[in-house]
Amino acid sequence: MKEKKKRKLLFQQKQFLRLQSFEPNPPPVTVESRQHVPLLNYIHRVWQETWDQQILNKLHNIHPSTSHWAALPVRRHDVRLTRLRIGHTRFTHRHLLLGENAPECPSCKVPYSVYHILIDCPVFNRHRVTFFHTSV
Question: Cβ contacts of residue 85 below 8 Å, gap of 6+?
Fold first, then answer.
């Protein structure tokens, strides 16, 4: 039993000495900002290549680049624009909350979507010309 206590005490002493040998506040590691730029560029390039392979991803169609997506200064406007970009609006998703069938465009016989309203539907062509000065 004494031998076991001696070994335990010796082990604790060694641990204590090991901990004392370390500096309590080591100097901060400094890396030149130019040194890690190639690594960041490589990581971003690999990320972009991986993202480019996601052709069936809905978000890839909306934002094909991995670059930063700037936010609008007014949060309410930013939320509205983001909902339009991803196609999740109260008009197009209300039926999910109410347990109803998806609303259908009467002229095209397809479910309403943000893309359909803003790009495809001939019924909204007049509005596109008025507000966006363009026609599809």
Answer: 62, 63
Provide the H-helix boundaries in 22-74: 33-52, 58-62
Q: Classify residue 92 as exposed, middle or buried by CB count within 10 Å of its CB (0-12, 13-18, 19+).
A: buried
Local structure of residue 32 (DSSP, 8 states) = -
Q: What are the tokens at 45? A: 């390039």
Q: Which residues contact 52 (CB under 8 A, 6 or more apart)?
A: 60, 64
User: Alpha helices of the chain — where are they, by DSSP H?
Assistant: 2-21, 33-52, 58-62, 75-86, 90-98, 114-115, 125-132
Q: How far apart are CA 46 and CA 42, in angstroms?
A: 6
Main-chain dihedrals φ then ψ at residue 111, nearest 5 degrees: -60, 145
Here the tokens at position 127 are 């509005």
> Do 99 and 90 form a contact (C-beta atoms < 8 A)?
no
Instruction: Please give the average pLDDT of every successive group of 10 residues along the chain, which has 136 residues.
Output: 75 68 60 73 91 85 83 90 88 90 92 89 89 76
For residues 89 and 79, is the Cβ–Cβ distance under 8 A?
no
The single residue listed with the structure tokens 């996601």 is 54
